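Colleagues,

For the teaching module next term, I've prepared a clean inverse folding example: a structure given as tokens, and then the sequence designed for it. I'd like students to try predicting residues themselves before seeing the answer, so please don't circulate the second half yet.
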């Protein structure tokens, strides 16, 4: 992966990963202070060798050796992953440093150009003044010459006047010489300024070369991220194999537990048998003692009872046989005790092996959880780097959301024409659409399936909303045909907290973050405005006086104009702006604007939005401790849905509304196509909507578009058009987002930029 390192360092890195200690005494490993990986570096060949490494075992049933090898392999994998993460962090830090250096050099260049222009204007003024003085001196000289001629005629009469004229002529010649010297100095200054201008041009060309070098570095970083994704997929496959081995170890553990249970049962049966044998032995001893007493009594009485000699011999034989039986029982007892001791030892060994396997399994589970955590962290880092690359490229980000099936939708099996790729490269980013047997594939920044909740959607844009508090211009707008779920995505369902849309959730996050930043010295002021564009007419949804243009279709009522300033900010004249302090106040204003917005019923949607809704919040923040000032703008836009007149069945006022909506959306498409082709002229002024969105589409704003599509089979054509339009939008390059610092203006108008 790191192809620029020398061969010695690569061999050192790979030998450290493989646990080798054969280091060259003349070569020292590269230092990397503060890093967990030390000076280890990897190449692509090293990573492939590590991933393709096969475990070799002397005995395939020696699980302890296999587990140790697997633990060592996991350590090397973790070391490789840590090195990748540190390398990506260094790339991000270097990229940020280069970006700041580029902005500093551009700022210096602009300042030098301004100073050069000022100096040129001053020199032009000086040259004009010198030319005027030269003309006046020439006029004076002509007059003096005429007077000299008159004095020559009257030389005999006016000698004193002649001498005075000669003196004045001499003074005039001296002044002329001074003026000539000043002209020569001015010419030298002009030459030096021209030389400085040439130096500035050379410096500008060097800056352009440096910018191209930065772009190549950005492309290499993008390729590095792609390689990291491929390596991550390989690591995921290895994790799957580890899980399979973990399952096999668990099965072996269960079998060992079962065998231990059987051994314990055998031990219990042997203990019972030993107890029985001991009882028999005790009984036999008692019988033997009794018999011995009888033998003694008989031997004492043998002299008295000779007739009983035969019976005593039988008793002796019986006693001998019982002694033999007692010896046999002693031998059986010793054998049973040895078996019991062996069973105790085997049970102890089994228990120790069970404990060792249990510890090993626990350690493997911990390492597996650690690897999964690192994998999740790597995925988060990949997303962050992906978003950073997109911001540097200046592209408009596009999220796609498929509306779930509703109760009144047709339940035909043909409606399932959307599919989602499951490969690691396109998981969560790709969507496939099949129409008339032809498959169309699209890739966006994020794709939300029908079962995605409102909270999951908001999590993906929460960091973008946070950028408004950090001083960026942020614009999020929803696009799609009528009935595709745009208003549900932006506003949600009223009265159901779990289904709140992006606008209410964004406002809650902003006010929560505002409270959290107060201990750090930040104080924020927020202003809100809401408007709609209905039939190419702007309406103020927060106006205390009901707009009469709602009755006369925009022909009467207050007229609002859109103006853009030099800083890329947009102002709408006479628009109602409200200062807000809490999310509850904004929720009240949203409810008020929702009741004032134009909606209507069509054959495709019971409550179809008949206008473009624009919510704008201007955020001004001041840090009292650092005196840092930021100014951000959050634009949340719910566009009216495109529709076909043949399907919507619009007539009368609804027909006029449909024509105005389709016209403004086609103007938006013209703007997107012009931006995609990088044409010199972009038709922003063709509609009120595109002119209002000009800073978001062609400026330095962070812009995100939600394309909403319907799963209805009857809407397949419109869904395909929406996806194609979204792909065009995703390919458009706009300005790089810039943070607005130290921009406190006296005008309190709301900016849409």
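(Answer key — instructors only)
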């Amino acid at each position: 992966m790191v192809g620029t390192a020398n061969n010695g360092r690569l061999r050192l890195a790979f030998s450290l990963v493989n646990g080798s200690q054969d280091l060259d005494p003349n070569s020292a490993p590269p230092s990397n202070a503060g890093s967990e990986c030390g000076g280890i570096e990897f190449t692509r060949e090293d990573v492939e060798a590590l991933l393709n490494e096969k475990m070799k075992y002397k005995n395939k049933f020696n699980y302890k050796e296999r587990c140790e090898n697997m633990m060592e392999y996991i350590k090397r994998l973790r070391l490789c992953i840590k090195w990748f993460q540190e390398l990506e962090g260094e790339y991000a830090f270097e990229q940020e440093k280069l970006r700041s250096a580029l902005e500093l050099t551009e700022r210096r260049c602009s300042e030098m150009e301004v100073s050069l222009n000022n100096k040129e204007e001053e020199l032009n003024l000086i040259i004009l003044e010198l030319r005027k003085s030269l003309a006046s001196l020439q006029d004076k000289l002509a007059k003096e010459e005429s007077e000299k001629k008159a004095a020559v005629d009257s030389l005999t009469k006016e000698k004193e006047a002649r001498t005075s004229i000669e003196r004045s002529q001499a003074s005039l010649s001296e002044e002329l010489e001074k003026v000539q010297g000043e002209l020569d100095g001015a010419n030298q200054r002009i030459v030096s300024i021209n030389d400085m201008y040439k130096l500035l041009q050379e410096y500008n060309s060097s800056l352009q070369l440096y910018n191209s070098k930065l772009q190549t570095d950005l492309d290499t970083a993008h390729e590095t991220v792609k390689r990291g994704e491929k390596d991550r997929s390989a690591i995921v496959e290895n994790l799957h194999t580890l899980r399979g081995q973990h399952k096999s170890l668990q099965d072996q553990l269960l079998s060992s537990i079962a065998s231990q249970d059987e051994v314990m049962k055998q031990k219990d049966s042997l203990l019972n048998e030993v107890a029985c044998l001991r009882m028999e032995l005790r009984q036999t001893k008692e019988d033997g003692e009794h018999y011995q007493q009888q033998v003694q009594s008989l031997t004492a009485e043998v002299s008295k009872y000779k007739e009983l000699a035969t019976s005593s011999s039988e008793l002796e034989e019986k006693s001998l046989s019982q002694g033999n039986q007692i010896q046999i029982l002693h031998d059986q007892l010793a054998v049973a005790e040895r078996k019991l001791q062996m069973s105790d030892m085997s049970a102890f060994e089994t228990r120790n092996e069970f404990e060792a396997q249990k510890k090993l399994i626990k350690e493997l589970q911990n390492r597996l959880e650690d690897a999964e955590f690192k994998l999740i962290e790597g995925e988060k880092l990949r997303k962050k780097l992906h978003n950073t690359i997109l911001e540097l490229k200046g592209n408009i980000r596009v999220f796609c959301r498929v509306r779930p099936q509703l109760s009144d939708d047709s339940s035909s099996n043909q409606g399932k024409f959307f599919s989602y790729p499951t490969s690691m490269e396109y998981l969560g980013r790709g969507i496939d659409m099949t129409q008339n047997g032809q498959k169309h594939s699209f890739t966006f920044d994020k794709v939300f399936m029908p079962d995605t909740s409102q909270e999951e959607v908001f999590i993906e844009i929460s960091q973008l909303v946070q950028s408004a508090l950090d001083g960026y211009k942020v614009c999020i707008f929803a696009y799609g045909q009528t009935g595709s779920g745009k208003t549900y995505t932006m506003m949600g369902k009223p009265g159901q907290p779990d289904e709140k849309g992006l606008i209410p959730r964004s406002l809650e996050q902003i006010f929560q973050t505002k409270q959290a930043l107060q201990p750090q010295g930040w104080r924020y002021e927020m202003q809100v405005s809401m408007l709609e564009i209905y039939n190419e007419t702007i309406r103020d949804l927060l106006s205390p006086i009901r707009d009469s243009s709602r009755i006369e279709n925009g022909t009467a009522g207050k007229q609002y104009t859109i103006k853009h300033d030099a800083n890329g900010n947009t102002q709408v004249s006479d628009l109602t702006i409200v200062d807000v302090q809490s999310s509850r106040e904004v929720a009240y204003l949203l409810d008020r604007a929702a009741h004032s917005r134009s909606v209507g019923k069509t054959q495709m949607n019971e409550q179809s939005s008949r206008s473009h809704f624009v919510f704008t919040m201007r955020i001004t923040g001041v840090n009292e401790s650092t005196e840092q000032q930021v100014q951000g703008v959050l634009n949340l836009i719910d566009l009216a849905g495109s529709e076909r007149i043949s399907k919507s069945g619009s007539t009368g006022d609804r027909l006029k509304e449909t024509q105005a909506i389709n016209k403004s959306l086609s103007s938006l498409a013209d703007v997107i196509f012009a931006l995609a082709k990088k044409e010199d002229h972009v038709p922003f002024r063709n509609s009120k909507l595109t002119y209002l969105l000009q800073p978001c589409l062609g400026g330095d704003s962070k812009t995100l578009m939600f394309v909403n599509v319907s799963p209805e089979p009857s809407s397949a054509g419109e869904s395909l058009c929406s996806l194609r339009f979204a792909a065009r939008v995703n390919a458009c390059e706009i300005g790089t987002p810039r943070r607005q610092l130290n921009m406190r203006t006296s005008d309190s108008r709301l900016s849409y930029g």
